Amino acid sequence: MTSSQGTAFYISVAAYIAVVCLIGLRNYRKTKSEEGFLVAGRSLGPIVGGATLMANQVSAGATIGMVGFHYFSGISYAWTWPLVWIGWVVCALFVAPKMRGLAGVTLPDYFAARYDSRAARGIAAVFILIAYSVMLSAQYQAGGLLFTLVGGMSYSKAVLLVAGITTVYTFLGGMYSNAYVGVLKAVMLLGCYVLAVPFLIKHVGGIDTLGNALHALDPRLTGNWFGVRQLLAISLAIGLGLACAPYEISAIYSMQSRQIVRQAIGYSFLFQSFIAIGVLIFGLAMRVSVPHLPDPDLATPMLGMSILPFWIGLLVLMAAVVTFTRTGGAILLTVASAMSHDLYAKLMVPNASERAKVLAGRIAVVTFSVIPVILALRQLSLVNWIVIYAAKLLVSFLFVPVVLGLNWKRATRAGALAAMVGGLVTCLVWLAQRQPYVLGLDAAEAGVLVSAALFFGVSIITKPVAEANLLPFFPAVQSASGVGS
Amino acid sequence: MLRHLTRVVVAATLAAGSVSAQQQPRARVQQADVAIYVIGAVARVRARYIFAGNPGAVSFEYLEQPCAVVGPIRLESNGKQVPYAGEATDPWVRLHDTSAVDPTRLSLGYQITYEVKLAASDVSVPIVLPTSALTGTRRGEPVATIHATLMWNARPIVPRMMFNESTRSWSARMAALPSAVRLSAAGVPNEKCWLEPKNSGGLARVFWALVATLALWVPLYMWWANRQRRAA
Questions:
Q1: Which residue from A206, A426, B2, B109 has the highest number of Cβ atoms inside 10 Å of its Cβ?
Q2: What is the DSSP pairing of strand B29-39 with strand B144-149?
Q3: What global pTM score does this model have?
Q4: Quick one: angle between helices A246-253 and A46-57, nearest 10?
């Protein structure tokens, strides 16, 4: 990158910081209450809601990591998009309407309400703190890499800069900021893919010529680098994980009604379709245009810096910056809410005032931005691997007690606790093994299966939860008990 | 408990990540300089590569481009011509250094020279690249340099290069080399030339199937969601 290009990049980053700070300041006065700070006062409509859901899901794992995945593994990984969407349909059918009906603030609120269990709330909150700190480190790592390459600054300074941007606007505007920066992210991503993809397809001589060059390099690039079994396992982990992901649940809480949530999921699919095609073409075209990158995660930065025309390249780089700071913001808000809402306000100081709760949230945003910085400085692995393995742990821990618990009345507190701990331990044991895994099961599949077995087995032999706890989730209980009549 | 859990989660992520890291090719090329001189409808290319350590058997490759005919390639090391064997896997052509590998050598330099006959005004000049990745001292450090000296009415399109007024040439520093330098050369006559893709591995079929799946999914889901809203 030339000095003038570097200058243009920094001016754009400065403009972006100014915009997100303005968004944060504009929404600062709306975030005097905890509900305003953590769930945007439940005011989001379908398009802003759809952009928020998409912006949570499409992280650095997609714009940096997934491009790198396509670079080294070809087209087969792209099938994870429609497979992951099955998880969203599960969410639209079985999770979102009931969660929105609860009108909570965090996912652990659900555990406390459904299972009448402070322990379940506490364990869920602690797990979210740990797993999402690892996931947040992937955003900082991708950001650090991009700023190092494009801006020439040291990796450690770059990680600190990315963490700073993310922390400032989340601190100021909470979920309101995340929602509107999510819209900005959607517009920038659509813009960069709509402009860059036709250029790249023409540059490589069309899809057939691209296929010819890839197939000659390695036939698996145009065929099945990842087999059906692997794709299903990864999609299961990510898709079902999304159906119960704490930051997506917070976004669901933030929307006006359960009908709006279902529409928002549709808009999210629309945004994701463009992104799926974009990251695929980016990865494949880069494999032919620059066939020997020292690191697949460099594909997007190099595309923006050296391959695309200046303004389109700058848009790609800025879209990447917006991506990892915005997803980082959503993750940070989730981590902070687990600390301030679930651990501080619900377990430690139940009588805390609204002002104290918002202050605790803001302090948690700053505090829990530091831990992922330390992890990012260690550069754990390729960005997309971090995202995939964090997703496997999340789905093993949360999917059964959330999705099945919302739809099976007989589930009990002990069953939920056993499912959470058993699923997580199983997934960790599986991940610690060398492949191939026992019985051919992936870590997420094993985690979910053990979690489900414990959930049903322990629930059946333990005392059911009180009907009052089931009311928000099972209308039939409401009519049978006469509460709703 | 919290600290222990953190350690376990991070260790599991690291263990998982190390599998992928092992799949990456080992980087061996320390420095690369490519110079292209375009005069009329001919591009002369001179590429210099320095390998760190003992690279063992060395191979190079280039991607054939339409309207760009690559002439005889000369491979030299330490000022001496090096024998090589060519292998074509269309559209890639690989050149394997067939000279005996000296197990004691600590570094190795190559110079590759060739000419490319251009037959279109928008044309890509193939670069003969090492088949292993370049490596810098830090992640993504630019260790490859490309210089292009072009006619007054020509300019590089890909990769992006900067014009130097004093040397009247274009240059770029990159973390990896492109497979070709695409030029817009107004003075070169356009001939009808086309490289017919021989085997695309069904990429177009899979690609359009994916596009169709995504394109169908969105309206179907929206129809269902709107129906649910009306029912409510």
A1: A426
A2: parallel
A3: 0.85
A4: 170
